[in-house]
Specification:
It contains 6 helices and 15 strands. The chain has 290 residues and is α/β, with parallel strands linked by helices.
Length: 290
């Protein structure tokens, strides 16, 4: 999975034989390769999955003896020139935040024609125990869209109690993009999918990607339907398994073992993810799906 560049210095091997790999210390992108879309992941296997969707791709390993190195894969997705990379550290610690910020700064400084940046990867879906239309199941495709207040990403820093009313209040940080082009495209795709569930070209792309990713360091097969279990907290550390909300009789877009498209805001924050009741209350207030 790794190979040595020089004594004591190693990089990951790119196992995709359709990808050209260039290792360089002085990183200069060809004038022909001017991506307009950047896709950023937090995990390496997420980047592998994104790269599997690309054609005519080259992976550039920007190797530095000291400090952080960068790996960029440039290729085509449809008619778009795309660059992918991953952030080097995870977590809410200051070191991880600085590292992620540096990654984005270098990305946008290197590729000055970037118009859209997408954060892509695996996330936890918010369970809505009785509402099929809001309930996210294992393997569904989730797209971040603004809620009724215009917020797309909502981070809960802490929970406070209002001195006058005594009600619980969430201390929030929120963000939403200025350009909704991608969200509008998704709405069109979702509407087509609802009206015609067979209109799901992504399933062919997924199969092609899975074929390409065979033999990689992670398994990319869809989990069996029986592993999609839903649990409800009934107090303390006690949980019970409950059934997923059933799709309405006239709802044709749900097919077991196939992803359903979901849209909504994305919530995060340590105070809400560790408590079922708080998570459900927060997601209801802010229309969170993940």
């Amino acid at each position: 999975l790794i190979r040595q560049i020089e004594p004591g210095r190693f990089v990951r091997k790119v196992l995709d034989d359709k990808t050209e790999v260039k290792v360089m210390k002085n990183f200069q992108v060809s004038s022909m390769a001017k991506p307009t879309i950047a896709i950023v992941t937090s995990k390496y296997n997420e980047k592998l999955a994104v790269d599997a969707m690309m054609e005519n791709k080259t992976t550039y390993v920007r190797f530095k003896t000291e400090g952080e190195s960068n790996v960029y894969t440039i290729g085509d997705i449809g008619n778009h020139k795309v660059v992918t990379t991953k952030i080097p550290q995870l977590g809410r610690q200051m070191a991880a935040q600085i590292s992620s910020g540096n990654t984005m700064t270098r990305l946008l400084g290197t590729f000055s024609d970037i118009e859209h940046v997408l954060l892509v990867g695996v996330a936890g879906g918010v369970p809505h125990y009785t509402d099929y239309y809001k309930h996210v199941r294992l393997g569904d495709i989730v797209m971040a869209t603004p809620n009724q207040k215009g917020y797309m990403y909502i981070f809960c820093d802490k929970i406070e109690t209002d001195k006058d009313s005594g009600q619980m209040q969430y201390a929030l940080k929120s963000w939403s993009p200025h350009d909704m082009t991608i969200q509008r495209i998704f709405e069109t795709i979702q509407e087509d999918f609802i009206n015609n569930p067979s209109a799901c070209p992504w399933e062919g792309y997924i199969k092609d990607g899975q074929m390409l990713l065979q033999g990689q360091e992670a398994a990319f097969q869809r989990p069996p339907p029986e592993t999609d279990k839903l649990y409800m907290n009934i107090g303390g550390n006690d949980v019970i398994e409950v059934g997923h909300p059933a799709p309405p009789a006239d709802q044709q877009s749900y097919r077991e073992g196939h992803p359903v498209l979901r849209a909504g805001s994305i919530g995060s924050g340590k105070p809400i993810i560790q408590d079922d009741a708080l998570r459900l209350d927060f997601s209801t207030r802010h229309n969170c799906v993940s």
